[in-house]
Amino acid sequence: HLLVMRGDGLVIAAPPFAKDDIFTRNLLAAGLRSAQLASKKTRGYLVERDEREMAAVIGYDYSQGYRDFPGFGWVALVVQDATIAFAPIDRLKLMVLAVGSAVVLGVVVMSLILAQRMTQPILKIAQVASQVARGDFDRKVQHRSGDEIGVLADTFNQMIEDLKQQRAALVEKAYVESIIGSMNETLIVVDPQARIRTVNEAACALLGYREEEL
After folding, report:
1. Is 47 exposed, middle or buried (0-12, 13-18, 19+ CB in 10 A)?
2. I want to staple 153 with a disulfide (CB 3.0 to 4.6 A). Which of 16, 83, 143, 172 is the partner?
């Protein structure tokens, strides 16, 4: 609503609901900051409380006259309830808060999904590694993606295959060495340069030398 006061602070115009203030209420005497600033020929706005402790946004301006007319020194005050004046800002705050909360929630959900998609293949690799450690070399990590986890899975599967082949070779070697060691006939294995590489116990007993000496 609009209030008009004289230079001495007396209200000379007011809306119908405040008609009793006309010629009875003095805004300067009431200590209204906006009225004091306007009476000093300044213009602007501020938020303050009146004598009824009602917070309001008050815009103020003074009469400058027109051409040769100096004016009456009146002051105009436009008063708006602070709750109503700041309602758009409050709505904007709520909107920003809601959007921010939605963004944070979305980031958390996406982080959980990405973390789950990353940890599940790693857990599979750990599970297969545990089974391989117990001697089960027929296990494979089932992961088909082309990302870093997929490369790791392929490398791990290749490592299992290599271990399987090495194990088979070791078993075969141990088996052959067991046969050679248990033979009653003498056996001497030489390389292309005729150097002795392996002899069995029967050869050592027959020749009377240790394997290291031969």
Report:
1. middle
2. 143
Backbone phi and psi for residue 98, each to the nearest 5 degrees, phi listed first: -65, -45
Q: Give the model's pLDDT for residue 130.
A: 80
CA distance 196 to 63: 123
* Greater model confidence, 184 or 45: 45
H or E element: which one contains 93? helix 87-133
Query: pTM for this structure?
Result: 0.45
Residue 103 pLDDT level (bands cut at 50, 70, 90): very high
How far is the C-alpha of 121 from the C-alpha of 169, rounded, in Å? 31
Q: Is the dihedral of CA 138, 143, 146, 147 positive or negative?
A: negative
DSSP E strand boundaries for the chain: 2-5, 11-13, 44-49, 55-62, 75-81, 188-190, 196-199
At 123-158, the pLDDT tens digits run 777 777 787 777 777 777 776 666 677 777 778 778
The letter for the amino acid at 152 is L
**β-pairing, 11-13 with 44-49?**
unpaired
Helix, strand or coil for residue 82? helix
Identify the pLDDT of residue 93. 92
